[in-house]
């Protein structure tokens, strides 16, 4: 059976982008593959050097994972920092990762631009830590959103490079995976690129109805199409992209036709979109509340997951050390 690995940083609550870009795939994959899903707390230090109460942030994501339907009986669910072997593999991978290729990574350039006062080495070596996360379980498939494509290319490169340098076939080349074929990118409501936990432009799974309505009604629009069948400007396309994932096909087609006939009223579209998002989020929100109310249970789930993940990581690291030449 093929192995799957993926993780999410505990930098805030899960949002629609995380759900449709990553978690939705996790849910199906846990029935079909050997799955490892983790909470990437080390990764969060690259952008959030003082992550406040890390334990609470991690519990929050864990409650949300479970509320979405991740099942610890089917998948190994764990916290990255519980598996110290990942840090050791990260160290070895860094020895064969070159400054030029790391500096050229788009995510590095973007993050460096956003936090010019904190261009840290962790930010630069994000792709090697991500590669270590994945290959520590010798994974074949990685369900991630479109934003991670280049980092996945780097992970494949580092896996291949390790195999070549140490004359082994230890690591398979991990492939990005999405059931829809190509990865999805859920836009932010501010019309500027992707929805992100740290971007302040997200609709969270835990948001209540009033909050969702307020956020959607505030989304940027324009004065409407003046010619039939015209290409949608980005801010409008963004609303349709959201509608495509949360609304019925009939609803989507109805508003699309209105747009194409220059009859669209964005207020109506936003109202409908808000109601469909509320219908999607509210059962998840209820389950999040239930899981969050029982932190002991969450800690137990994390401890059991860590044990299983560690066994897999320890087995890989034994091979890695032998290949490099350590005793
Ligand atoms: P941050 O804003 O703190 O960087 P994030 O919301 O981008 O956080 P990550 O933890 O970096 O989330 O990513 C978790 C997973 O969710 C990844 O697989 C990523 O591809 C996916 N993802 C994040 N945002 C989106 C989005 N807007 N559309 C689709 N997938 C997304």
UniProtKB/TrEMBL annotation:
Entry annotated with the keyword Transport: no
Catalytic activities: tRNA(Trp) + L-tryptophan + ATP = L-tryptophyl-tRNA(Trp) + AMP + diphosphate + H(+)
Annotated binding of ATP, by residue: 9-11, 17-18, 145-147, 186, 194-198
Domain of life: Bacteria
This enzyme's EC code(s): 6.1.1.2
GO biological process: tryptophanyl-tRNA aminoacylation
SUPFAM superfamilies linked: Nucleotidylyl transferase
Entry's Gene Ontology molecular function annotations: ATP binding; tryptophan-tRNA ligase activity
Coiled coil: none
Keyword terms, alphabetized: Aminoacyl-tRNA synthetase, ATP-binding, Cytoplasm, Ligase, Nucleotide-binding, Protein biosynthesis
Binding site for L-tryptophan: 133
Localization terms from the record: Cytoplasm
InterPro entries, alphabetized: aa-tRNA-synth_I_CS (IPR001412), aa-tRNA-synth_Ic (IPR002305), Rossmann-like_a/b/a_fold (IPR014729), Trp-tRNA-ligase (IPR002306), Trp-tRNA-ligase_bac-type (IPR024109), Trp-tRNA_synthetase (IPR050203)
Coarse class of the protein's main subcellular location: cytoplasm
Gene3D superfamilies in UniProt: HUPs (3.40.50.620), Tyrosyl-Transfer RNA Synthetase (1.10.240.10)
Motif ('HIGH' region): 10-18
Motif residue range(s): 'KMSKS' region: 194-198
Alphabetized Pfam families for the sequence: tRNA-synt_1b
UniProt keyword annotation of Transit peptide present: no
GO cellular component entries: cytosol
Its job: Catalyzes the attachment of tryptophan to tRNA(Trp).
Similarity comment: family membership: Belongs to the class-I aminoacyl-tRNA synthetase family.
Subunit structure: Homodimer.
Name of protein: Tryptophan--tRNA ligase
Annotated organism of origin: Butyricimonas faecihominis
Gene: trpS
